[in-house]
From TrEMBL:
Belongs to the ABC transporter superfamily. Residues 12-236 form the ABC transporter domain. The keyword Ligase does not apply. It comes from the Bacteria. One of its GO terms (molecular function) is ATP binding. This is ABC-2 type transport system ATP-binding protein. PROSITE patterns: ABC_TRANSPORTER_1 (PS00211), ABC_TRANSPORTER_2 (PS50893). PANTHER family: ABC TRANSPORTER, ATP-BINDING PROTEIN. It comes from Salinimicrobium catena. Keywords: ATP-binding, Nucleotide-binding, Transport.
Amino acid sequence: MLKAYSILNKILQINNLTKKYGPVTAVKDLSFTIEKGNVYGILGPNGSGKSTTLGVVLNVVNKTSGDFKWFDGRESTHDALKKVGAIIERPNFYPYMTAAQNLDLVCKIKNVAPDKIDEKLELVGLLDRKDSKFRTFSLGMKQRLAIASALLNDPEILILDEPTNGLDPQGIHQIREIITKIAQDGTTILLASHLLDEVEKVCTHVVIIRKGEKLYSGPVDQMNASFGFFELKAAETEKLHRLLDEHPSFGKITQKGEILVAFLNEPLEAEALNKYLFENGLVLSQLVKRKESLEEQFLQLTNQISA
Ligand SMILES: Nc1ncnc2c1ncn2[C@@H]1O[C@H](COP(=O)(O)OP(=O)(O)OP(=O)(O)O)[C@@H](O)[C@H]1O
């Protein structure tokens, strides 16, 4: 029973996917799974292989090796993709047709009933502009219309490549709110972004890639699972170093001038550390407890495999 449930929950599985463009390896041995109901972010700097990964699973880019399976392989990729809504390019509609006319045309092309047009326009905040011509829309409105269009057939999953690229702060905010609303309605979402802040605000899960390789995948809130570090100074630096080495809560210890930076493996309060050092005959002249911001952790992660 449990197994059947977990199979039904698998929307996409990517296994050891590699894509090479001649000498360039855009995606390298990438594996991750997308489960129903979550919002996934593929996060990585420009050129890290995000668009290529989306292109492969949407059958517009040929993979070099590895494989991917939609809906646990219950149907062909061609059929499975009918249940996927995707926007991977700049939205393009007929400029002299209205929003509603453009969506009506999409319904005809996709062979879906046009009865959801108003509902989807409402969802993206464009119902009152349904009779305006596409050419009069701002970039943000065009992007919102593209989202409405991708949702016309109520897909199981919505895929977006850099959904807020080029938008002003208000446009960015609107798109993020819409994505959150769509997710709350139960649609699974996969988006590619180079913005940590975007992934943090919108996603429940993240796959961080750099140069096509996965560096981290898991819940966004666990990305921030670092226990922090202490910056410490004492007259007897060597003794301080030794006592920290002997304490079970510390991992890496580095020295910055006269200050020792000691990274925690587990939670430890400043008071407890101060007491431990004092009881061992060491008096601190400086004690600061800090935690890397998510941004610092992300930068550390993406710099980790340089060159
Ligand atoms: N059609 C192509 N031909 C040759 N190389 C390509 C092609 N498409 C992508 N690449 C290369 O593959 C690598 C990954 O590119 P990709 O566009 O997938 O990254 P990305 O993370 O989506 O970046 P961006 O956000 O800048 O689009 C880059 O080095 C890029 O130059």
